[in-house]
Structure to design on (359 residues):
């Protein structure tokens, strides 16, 4: 029988294709509220469906299960899934064909992305990337829709409409914008020297999606010293003053992975989590280091957050795996799947910086 436990403010990961006994116990800790899955957790759709069912059977309400499934260089599950194009492909269609065709394609991609994940029991993909492509950040590169903020917003909203068809919400990243720095925050703490006025351009897509019901945001492990010396994920200025108070965003704020080098400025894992929560994050991610997850969970004191349960629930997929599999048999989905597959090409992954386990 599942244990009755409210979802806590920590999202953890697991090592393999099934849960070990140690992992089951870790996921039953009251601080845990969700699980992020990676390529190492995937063999095929059937195995993934069994794994997500195993995770969701542990607790009620069920743990939220998420992954990074953007398309292009960042698609955790490939064999048995439709290969998704890099989002830049949609921006190219906007420029070379028409905005209407680009938005039609974006909605189809979102529908396929969400429905195939929902069919395997996944709740949320950390997508879309709302960063602008300033031609400076290889780790973003073709993950960005476009360099124009209004084009990025329009394509992301079209993708959001498609995701909603598949029962899935959006998570915009990396607030307030990762596109104008050269460093990769997986390995360093990038610095964006621009003024607050200049950064308003990058913020516009986040504002547009916040106004249209975006469920989650992930801040950048990037510092913007003209605004605040602290990285955005540790900055009350960015998360409270700008994201909450100015943009009126009311969904989940996820930290990016606290084991990334860009997060290390706050100290050890407990100090990093404290800094993220104090800045305004609802949920912290701890990936690839189960030892650090256990260190964080020891004597964990959850911050007061009366909105946490509601915000968590809003990220849950509204389509059951059975309903998603039924939708995949319908002509409308098949047409969207054919279109999406035709948009993907080897250029999506060629020559780009690897992002985690993307290739």
């Amino acid at each position: 029988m599942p244990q009755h436990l409210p979802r806590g403010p920590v999202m953890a990961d697991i090592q393999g294709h099934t849960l070990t006994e140690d992992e089951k116990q870790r996921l039953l800790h009251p601080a845990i509220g969700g699980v992020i899955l990676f390529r190492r957790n995937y063999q095929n759709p059937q195995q993934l469906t069994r794994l997500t069912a195993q995770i969701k059977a542990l607790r009620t309400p069920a743990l939220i299960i998420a992954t990074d499934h953007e398309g292009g260089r960042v698609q955790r599950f490939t064999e048995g899934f439709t290969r998704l194009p890099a989002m830049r492909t949609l921006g190219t269609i906007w420029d070379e064909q028409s905005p209407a065709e680009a938005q039609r394609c974006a909605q189809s991609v979102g529908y396929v992305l969400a429905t195939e994940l929902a069919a395997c029991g996944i709740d949320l993909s950390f997508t879309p990337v709302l960063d602008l492509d300033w031609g400076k950040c290889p780790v973003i590169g073709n993950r960005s829709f476009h360099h124009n903020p209004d084009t990025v917003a329009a394509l992301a909203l079209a993708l959001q409409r498609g995701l909603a068809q598949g029962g899935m919400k959006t998570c915009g990243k990396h607030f307030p914008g990762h596109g104008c720095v050269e460093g990769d925050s997986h390995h360093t703490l990038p610095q964006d020297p621009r003024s607050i006025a200049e950064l308003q351009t990058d913020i516009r897509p986040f504002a547009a999606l916040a106004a249209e019901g975006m469920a989650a945001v992930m801040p950048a492990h990037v510092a913007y010293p003209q605004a605040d010396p602290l990285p955005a994920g540790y900055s009350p200025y960015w998360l409270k003053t700008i994201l909450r108070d100015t943009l009126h965003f009311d969904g989940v704020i996820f930290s990016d992975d606290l084991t990334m080098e860009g997060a290390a400025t706050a100290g050890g894992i407990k100090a990093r989590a404290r800094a993220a929560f104090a800045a305004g994050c609802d949920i912290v991610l701890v990936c690839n280091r189960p030892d650090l997850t256990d260190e964080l969970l020891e004597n964990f004191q959850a911050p007061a957050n009366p909105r946490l349960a509601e915000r968590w629930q809003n990220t849950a997929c509204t389509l059951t795996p059975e309903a998603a599999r039924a939708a995949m048999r319908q002509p409308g989905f098949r047409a969207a799947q054919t279109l999406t597959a035709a948009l993907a090409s080897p250029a999506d992954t060629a020559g780009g910086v690897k992002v985690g386990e993307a290739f």
The longest strand covers residues 32-37. Residues 107 and 158 are 5 Å apart (CA to CA). The longest helix spans residues 99-119. The two ends are 38 Å apart (CA to CA).
